[in-house]
Every structure is written in C-alpha cells, then in structure tokens.
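Model it.
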Amino acid sequence: MQSLAESIRPSADLRNRYGEISRLCREQREAVIITVNGRGDTVSLGYEQYQQLKAKVELLELLGKAEDDVRNGRVAPMQSSFDALRAELQKRK
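Modeled.
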C-alpha cells in the first residue's frame, strides 16, 4: 500500500493560504495536517483521496467481518452461495 504524503501547517494558514493548501491536497495528493498551538488538530485531504481512503477502510471492515465469520464457523459451501445469489438475481429481472 502506498503511503500518504503529509505536510504540517499552522491553523492560520487555513485562513491566509487556503488556496495553497487546497492545491497541495488536490494536485500533489498530500494530506495537510493543521496544527493549533503546535499540536495536530485536523487533517485536510483532496476529495478524491478522501473517497479512496474511505473505500479502503470500508473494504478492510468488510474483510474483518468475513474473517470473523470464518473463525466462528459461519460459512457455507461456495456452490450453494453462488446458487442462492444467482436465484436472487434471477428474481430481480
């Protein structure tokens, strides 16, 4: 997995240099950490990066649930699962 580039900016830059921060997020695909009194407060991301990050988190949560199902024996044979899915799709046509 590719790591996310980051830069750190003081909160005053949001007001004084918003365009520059926005450009970093969108064009350079950097996460900008906004600090207040020298401590991390918020993070700004470009919308596309946010959507990608959100999709990855949702996928990891789904995989975690699937792993828990396997660990606890909540599984079904693959063929019967596909048959049930195929039947459900046929009903929707």
